[in-house]
């Protein structure tokens, strides 16, 4: 199976559903000036005023344009032409300067043709990539001397637990085989997808850190977070825009973030 072709069709089909969903709240972004980033992302990245930032696997650009609202000079890259079309339209409608490029992440160096102060990769991106070593080398090649990678992701530990309670080990943490999914809906609602097949790749924390280190980047921190952004298990309790296990239950890592710097 050509994972890239299959996943591109799947994500092209998701774009109009996501743009119209309450989950992404595009209206709030356009009308109310909402920032679509988590508080910990903003805190850990720090002041981006005047800094060049490229967002790899940017989808239709909400996070990318949020960094622009915070002062960054932004570029977004995604393999979905439908997503990039929407990102450009949103940029124009909001009057937020941004560059958006359609390309596979592994082709980013050639497609973008420049280096950046910050390479940002947001939640839910790495499961679509089969080769993290190649990804990390791409990131390193995109960074200016002294620039840094910032990655925020869902924690792979959460994916080995049962879907109902999140308390029982059910899946193999070390399974690196491609997983083919047939899902009629995307994560934002009940509208039926035209292309329902996707191919995903699970990566452990050790694999991520090792790939980043092998690319020559110096790890500044790896933070694990006890909350997530959606009801991953039926037992999770909403806490504002975050979801946690009930009070008194043993906590588990549900998201993580890391920052790694290129040599000067």
Automatic annotation (TrEMBL):
GO biological process, one term: methylation
PANTHER family the record matches: TRANS-ACONITATE 2-METHYLTRANSFERASE-RELATED (PTHR43861)
Annotated EC: 2.1.1.222, 2.1.1.64
UniProt lineage: Bacteria, Bacillati, Actinomycetota, Actinomycetes, Streptosporangiales
Name of the protein: Class I SAM-dependent methyltransferase
Residue span(s) of domain Methyltransferase type: 55-149
Keywords: Methyltransferase, Transferase
Keyword Methyltransferase: yes
InterPro entries on file: Methyltransf_12, SAM-dependent_MTases_sf
GO molecular function, one term: 3-demethylubiquinol 3-O-methyltransferase activity
């Amino acid at each position: 199976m050509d994972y890239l072709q299959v996943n591109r069709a799947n994500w092209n089909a998701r774009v109009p559903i996501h743009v119209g969903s309450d989950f992404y709240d595009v209206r709030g972004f356009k009308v109310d000036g909402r920032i679509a980033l988590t508080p910990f992302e903003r805190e850990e990245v720090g002041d981006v005023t005047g800094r060049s930032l490229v967002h790899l696997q940017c989808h239709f650009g909400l996070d990318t344009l949020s960094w622009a609202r915070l002062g960054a000079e932004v570029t977004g890259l995604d393999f979905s032409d439908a997503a990039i079309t929407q990102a450009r339209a949103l940029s124009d409608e909001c009057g937020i300067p941004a560059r958006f490029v359609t390309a596979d992440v592994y082709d980013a160096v050639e497609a973008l043709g420049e280096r950046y102060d910050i390479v940002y990769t947001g939640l839910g991106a790495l499961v679509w990539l089969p080769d993290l070593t190649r990804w990390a080398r791409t990131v390193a090649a995109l960074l200016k001397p002294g620039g840094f990678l910032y990655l925020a992701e869902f924690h792979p530990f959460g994916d080995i637990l049962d879907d109902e309670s999140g308390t029982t080990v059910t899946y193999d943490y070390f399974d690196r085989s491609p997983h083919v999914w047939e899902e009629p809906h995307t994560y934002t609602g009940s509208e039926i997808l035209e292309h329902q097949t996707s191919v995903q790749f699970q990566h452990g924390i050790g694999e991520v850190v090792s790939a980043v280190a092998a690319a020559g980047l110096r790890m500044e921190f790896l933070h694990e977070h006890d909350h997530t952004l959606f009801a991953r298990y039926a037992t999770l309790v909403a806490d504002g825009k975050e979801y946690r296990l009930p009070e008194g239950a043993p906590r588990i890592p549900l998201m993580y973030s890391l920052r790694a710097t290129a040599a000067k």
